[in-house]
């Protein structure tokens, strides 16, 4: 295990010059789909083709650029095994496939990423006969109460999207352990810079590298990291053979490049998000702000214990109706109206009209997703420019002319 710190690992780990790229400071983009063998060796089996030794056979199995990224991501999360997929969704589906069979049961947070929730409902519950219980995991007792003898997977996200709720990973890891179930945590929102679920007791960590790990809104990808050798073998089978879902070399290069600045970006994202959260909290057109860095967040203490920072994503409720939120959002110039999070540019979205629009309104509202709940992914621009932009939005809500 490499005990250097995240900032150092993020810059170079995994890209060490090896057999195939002696002397390169950064990993080249290896586009080859196949690799010539030196000859035919009757003693050789597929198992002997070891990318760590510079041996590659076919790029779906292993590719040098993807392999560099997989080693990097494993090191950043403090795990032994990393896997890079074509999307975060593919990463989550793969670990779920590795963890359940028909008749099994999953316990999941009820405020999951909307796509993950749909995957569990439509693919696993409706088609694969895997029952799924969605619970309010802000209280670990609710997870303990939902666990059954046939529970094989507990799936968490913290903080969640869009209500920015936390769950106590260490407490839930104990519950999963007692139940002989696997605990997976989607760590997309905080990145390994602020939170390390494996250290807190999770068995596997998932990422949408589309977000902070790549960080520049120009690649879609996903990753899994684990230190469980048996699970790693199953993940490798599913990634390379069972499903054949791998991240392409060019995207692997982009994420390798993105991770180099992860620590600096995360610090800037957080400083800006905190400044904006404080500004919003004092505003008379804002009814509630959800950001774990605020003392008013009901789980601020848990955030302080479990994470080394609060991240760059927050949500807040505007006073008024859908049309007020619409006027606010459409007046913004620095914040692009777009789904997704984690890029250097600031984005804003209205869950009720965008990411969570497919959920029926009554169900949405019962869950706290009102028509004026706004989610923000705060970028690394100058915070005063961002606050001035929000003032433009509030002026539009009041029906004042908007200055540019
Ligand atoms: C974006 C996201 C996903 C899905 O990742 P894709 O790369 O879009 O497939 C999963 N979980 C969280 C928390 C996300 O933000």
TrEMBL record:
Record has Glycosyltransferase as a keyword: no
Keyword Translocase attributed: no
Keyword set, alphabetical order: Pyridoxal phosphate
Highest taxon, organism lineage: Archaea
Family: Belongs to the trans-sulfuration enzymes family.
PANTHER family: CYSTATHIONINE GAMMA-LYASE (PTHR11808:SF15), TRANS-SULFURATION ENZYME FAMILY MEMBER (PTHR11808)
Name of the molecule in the record: Trans-sulfuration enzyme family protein
Taxonomic source organism: Halobacterium litoreum
């Amino acid at each position: 295990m490499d005990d250097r710190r995240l900032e150092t690992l993020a810059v170079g780990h995994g890209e060490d010059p090896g057999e195939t790229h002696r002397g390169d400071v950064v990993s080249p983009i290896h586009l080859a789909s196949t690799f010539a063998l030196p000859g035919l060796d009757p003693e050789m089996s597929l198992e002997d083709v070891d990318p760590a030794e510079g041996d590659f056979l076919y790029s779906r199995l292993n590719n040098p650029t993807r392999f560099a990224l997989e080693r990097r991501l494993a090191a950043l999360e403090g795990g032994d095994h990393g896997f890079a997929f074509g999307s975060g969704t593919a990463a989550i589906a793969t670990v779920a496939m590795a963890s359940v069979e028909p008749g099994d049961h999953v316990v999941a947070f009820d405020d999951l990423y909307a796509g993950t929730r749909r995957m569990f409902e439509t693919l696993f519950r409706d088609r694969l006969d895997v029952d799924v219980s969605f619970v309010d995991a802000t209280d670990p007792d609710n997870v303990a109460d939902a666990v059954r003898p046939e529970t094989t997977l507990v799936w968490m996200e913290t903080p969640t999207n869009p209500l920015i709720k936390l769950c106590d990973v260490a407490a839930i890891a104990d519950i999963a352990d007692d139940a002989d179930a696997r605990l997976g945590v989607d760590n997309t929102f905080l990145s390994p810079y602020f939170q390390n679920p494996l250290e807190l007791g999770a068995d596997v960590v998932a990422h949408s590298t589309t977000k902070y790990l790549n960080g520049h809104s120009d690649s879609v990808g996903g990753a899994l990291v684990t230190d469980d050798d048996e699970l790693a073998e199953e993940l490798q089978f599913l990634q390379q053979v069972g499903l054949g879902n791998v991240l392409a070399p060019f995207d692997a290069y982009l994420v390798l490049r993105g991770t180099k600045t992860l620590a600096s970006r995360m610090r800037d994202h957080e400083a800006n998000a905190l400044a904006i959260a404080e500004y919003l909290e004092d505003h008379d057109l804002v009814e509630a702000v959800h950001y774990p860095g605020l003392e008013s967040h009901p789980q601020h203490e848990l955030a302080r214990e479990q994470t080394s920072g609060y991240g760059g994503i927050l949500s807040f409720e505007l006073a008024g109706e859908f049309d007020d939120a619409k006027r606010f959002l459409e007046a913004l110039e620095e914040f692009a109206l777009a789904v997704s999070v984690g890029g250097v540019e600031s984005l804003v979205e209205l869950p009720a009209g965008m990411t969570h629009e497919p959920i029926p309104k009554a169900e949405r509202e019962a869950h706290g997703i009102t028509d004026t709940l706004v989610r923000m992914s705060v970028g690394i621009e100058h915070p005063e420019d961002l606050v001035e932009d929000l003032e433009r939005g509030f002026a539009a809500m009041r029906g004042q002319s908007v200055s540019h």
